[in-house]
């Protein structure tokens, strides 16, 4: 199958060829014709599947005809949960649309709003935005939706996890009801389906990676180790295996900072990336990591989600994720686009509960590899595989405070948080 057979026109095909893409990925093969036809789409797909081009290419195709965008107006709105993802999607829009006379821009929180307001004055055929900043701009009349033709919710599950539901609902209420809506999500939980109801109409449903299965090309195992020795083991693994580009997941922002500092002190150049870092620092860290100037990127889940780092060879879970599904997302960072990857988890006895939940979800016991010199004092019990089906855990309510893509020092609704568990 070729891109030309999907109904894309010459300027877009040229941009795709410039990227070196030869054949459409499965999600692209299904999504592109459906979106060009004007259908609503609900797609279960993670990063690494080519989902971005799956919606950006056909949107460009649709927008290449039709009315010119007016000042402060938007014809297609792409909402993403994090600033990094917004920036990345924005880059893809610019790349794939480079031979078309369409205007696109990106807006997100954590940076000055004024330059964004100025850019929006000319209007944007495509606007990529995080929900909090978009609401700020909308309230200030800097963005208008009466010309809107297409809405995309990218990583909708993560947007809900991050507590953006109120902003999203407010944004949707401000959009014209007659529009095309595309929803992309790694998983389709009950909450996502609830959101989708009334949002998408007779959608084409696409699923390219079965839920909660790990990508086959990824080799993953655990290293049992006492908590106190995790840093030393990580250093040994990096040095012994001569890992050149490692994404390390840390449970907390503080832990990420500390670990990056400890690695740096051992001569392993490392940077932390998380929601408390300024946007400039996060962009710089990611750019340095991509170009190989930084060897280890220590990230929290939210900061790492959706980062497109091509063919990342090595992922390390310094801490196991609290929510088992996040294990699949995390290790999905490696082995992308058919490249082989490795994911190693450093697991201490206190994490036995998390380990069991992951094994239950994957329906397999994870391979254990002990490292000489790191024998455990506090034993990690033998796994007993629980074969009952896993029930997906509800994500934790976010704390009040500054988070990705959100207004400063407020929760997503700009109000005091309600107690947990009442969504
Ligand atoms: P995504 O899932 O959108 O984050 O895309 C993952 C990566 O796949 C990106 O680096 C894209 O540049 C790349 N990609 C997307 N579509 C194709 C394709 N048809 N052929 C080769 N690479 C692709």
From TrEMBL:
UniProt biased composition (Basic residues): 390-400
Principal location class: cytoplasm
Domain Helicase C-terminal: 233-382
Motif Q motif boundaries: 1-29
EC number annotated for this UniProt entry: 3.6.4.13
Role: DEAD-box RNA helicase involved in ribosome assembly. Has RNA-dependent ATPase activity and unwinds double-stranded RNA.
HAMAP family, per database record: DEAD_helicase_RhlE
Name of the protein in its database record: ATP-dependent RNA helicase RhlE
């Amino acid at each position: 199958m070729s891109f030309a057979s999907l109904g894309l026109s010459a300027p877009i095909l040229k941009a795709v060829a410039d990227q070196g893409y030869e054949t459409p990925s499965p999600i692209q093969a299904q999504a592109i014709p459906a979106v060009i036809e004007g259908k609503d789409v609900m797609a279960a797909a993670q990063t690494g599947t080519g989902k971005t081009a799956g919606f950006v290419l056909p949107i460009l195709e649709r927008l290449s005809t039709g009315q010119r965008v007016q000042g402060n107006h938007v014809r297609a709105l792409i909402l993403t949960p994090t600033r990094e993802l917004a920036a990345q999607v924005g880059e893809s829009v610019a790349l794939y649309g480079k031979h078309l006379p369409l205007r696109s821009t990106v807006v997100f929180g954590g940076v000055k709003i004024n330059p964004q307001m100025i850019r929006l004055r000319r209007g944007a055929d495509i606007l990529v935005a995080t929900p909090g900043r978009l609401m700020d701009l909308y309230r200030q009349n800097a963005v208008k939706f009466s010309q809107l033709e297409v809405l995309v919710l990218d990583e909708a599950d993560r947007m809900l996890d991050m507590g953006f539901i109120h902003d999203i609902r407010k944004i949707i209420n401000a959009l014209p009801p007659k529009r095309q809506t595309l929803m992309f999500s790694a998983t389709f939980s009950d909450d996502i389906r609830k959101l989708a109801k009334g949002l998408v109409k007779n959608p084409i449903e696409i699923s390219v990676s079965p839920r909660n299965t790990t990508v086959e090309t990824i080799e993953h195992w655990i290293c049992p180790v006492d908590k106190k020795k995790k840093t030393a083991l990580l250093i040994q693994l990096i040095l012994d295996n001569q890992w050149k580009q490692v994404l390390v997941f840390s449970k907390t922002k503080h832990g990420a900072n500390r670990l990056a500092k400890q690695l740096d002190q051992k001569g392993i150049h490392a940077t932390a990336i998380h929601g408390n870092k300024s946007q400039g620092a996060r962009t710089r860290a990611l750019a340095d990591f991509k170009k190989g100037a930084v060897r280890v990127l220590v990230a929290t889940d939210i900061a790492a989600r959706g980062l497109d780092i091509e063919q990342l060879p090595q992922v390390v879970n310094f801490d196991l994720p609290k929510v088992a599904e996040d294990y699949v997302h995390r290790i999905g960072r490696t082995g992308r686009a058919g490249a082989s990857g490795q994911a190693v988890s450093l697991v201490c006895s206190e994490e036995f509960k998390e380990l069991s939940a992951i094994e239950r979800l994957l329906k397999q016991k994870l391979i254990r590899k002990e490292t000489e010199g790191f024998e455990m004092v506090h034993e990690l019990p033998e796994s007993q595989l629980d074969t009952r089906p896993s029930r997906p855990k509800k994500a934790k309510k976010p704390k009040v405070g500054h988070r990705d893509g959100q207004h400063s020092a407020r929760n997503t609704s700009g109000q005091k948080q309600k107690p947990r568990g009442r969504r």
